[in-house]
Specification:
Blueprint lengths: L1 H22 L12 E12 L2 E4 L6 E6 L4 E8 L8 E4 L2 E5 L4 E6 L10 E5 L5 E9 L2 E11 L1
Antiparallel strand pairs: 1-2, 1-3, 1-10, 3-4, 4-5, 4-6, 6-7, 7-8, 8-9, 9-10
């Protein structure tokens, strides 16, 4: 019996610190299923001048959501006749709510930072971010599909 108590005490002295260290916090960001590189696979605008398939017109949106909450990427809006194109850096941060609503904070003043996106998956199970909002009479609908994690 005495030997059993000594063995138990030895296991506690060795094992307890290991358990405490394994359960401790970390300064490293945790992985999230939302993180990854996304590209616009659906990008439509509609308003008084009609509806435009922005991808067919040459517009692109690519954004990478890092697990640490940072973003990188690029937005290019093709120029309508007589107007200059818009190019914007998507550098900034992202956050997500428990309801999977993703918002962006960026210095670039584009619809991306003013539109909530909902994270989910398409019928093949691929992660997507979808946004749909009206700005000054123009509706912008975007689906971003994850290309990689």
């Amino acid at each position: 019996m005495r030997q059993s108590l000594r063995n138990t005490r030895a296991l506690l002295l060795i094992g307890l610190p290991a358990i405490v260290l394994a359960c401790g916090g970390s300064d490293e960001p945790s992985d999230t299923p939302i993180a990854g590189t996304y590209a616009a696979t659906f990008f439509h605008t509609s308003g008084a001048s009609g509806q435009t398939d922005q991808i067919a017109a040459g517009s692109t949106l690519q954004i990478t959501l890092a697990a640490n909450g940072s973003t990188t990427g690029h937005l290019h809006i093709a120029a309508p006749a007589g107007s200059p194109p818009l190019d914007a850096d998507m550098a900034g941060t992202w956050t997500a709510t428990e309801n999977h609503v993703v918002t962006f904070t960026q210095s670039a003043d584009t619809f991306v930072r003013n539109m909530p996106f909902t994270w989910g998956s398409d019928i093949q199970g691929i992660s997507i971010l979808t946004g749909d909002k009206v700005f000054a009479g123009t509706r912008i609908e975007v689906t971003l599909t994850r290309a990689s994690t």
